[in-house]
Write a structure and sequence with these properties.
199 residues, mainly alpha, 2 domains, disordered N terminus
Length: 199
């Protein structure tokens, strides 16, 4: 009995879950949002999920979905709202300002350079074909990210109502082309009611 206890004790740390990474520093916030903005051709949703969830592990998939859903309900750009919420969550007002600076500063300089080049060479057929290819790749990247974000809704759920709400929202907006404000006015109360009942 006594000899087996050290073995059990030594095995315990291996089964423990890995601790969460420390909160990001101001420099890490700037670099992360600059990376998201500079790499986010065709939209930054894919890269924000990749950086925050997969690479840095600052958010779980569920936390990312919840935060982005909140940003979608607020006025303004989703990623701009996300930078404010995320930066202030870890580093307060200064963190929010640094995240915004990383999100807007480097891309602004890059766009000024690209705009100057496009003004001179924008009519070249080769450049137009290249832009078409970039748009196609961006669409595929967006579809892959949507699949990743939808996975937590369909896995390990005790209620089938949550994925049904997601499917109904997609069908109403993406297939039926119903007005977004009307769909949200109907879906949001239903979603809140389901979450309230499940709690």
């Amino acid at each position: 009995m006594n000899e087996s206890s050290p073995t059990r004790a030594s095995a315990a740390p291996s089964t423990a879950s890995s601790p969460h990474p420390p909160p990001p520093s101001l420099f890490a916030l700037f670099v992360a949002f600059a990376t998201i903005a500079l790499c986010g051709f065709g939209g930054v949703l894919a890269w924000s999920h990749r950086v925050m969830v997969e690479e840095r592990r600052w958010l779980t998939p569920e936390q990312f979905n919840q935060t982005y859903a909140l940003c979608s309900m607020l006025p303004g750009g989703n990623i701009l709202n996300f930078s404010v919420i995320f930066g202030s969550r870890f580093r307060g007002v200064l963190g929010a300002l640094v995240a915004i600076a990383g999100l807007l500063g480097p891309p602004m300089l890059l766009i000024m350079i690209i705009g100057t080049i496009y003004a001179h060479y924008g009519e070249m057929p080769a450049l137009r074909r290249a832009l078409t290819g970039i748009a196609s790749a961006a669409a595929g990247l967006m579809m892959a990210t949507v699949a990743k974000m939808a996975r937590p809704l369909f896995v390990n759920r005790r209620s089938i109502a949550v994925p049904l709400v997601a499917v109904a929202t997609f069908a109403a907006i993406g297939v039926m082309q119903w007005p977004l404000p009307l769909v949200l006015a109907a879906i949001i109360p239903v979603s809140i009611g389901i979450s309230w009942v499940r709690l």
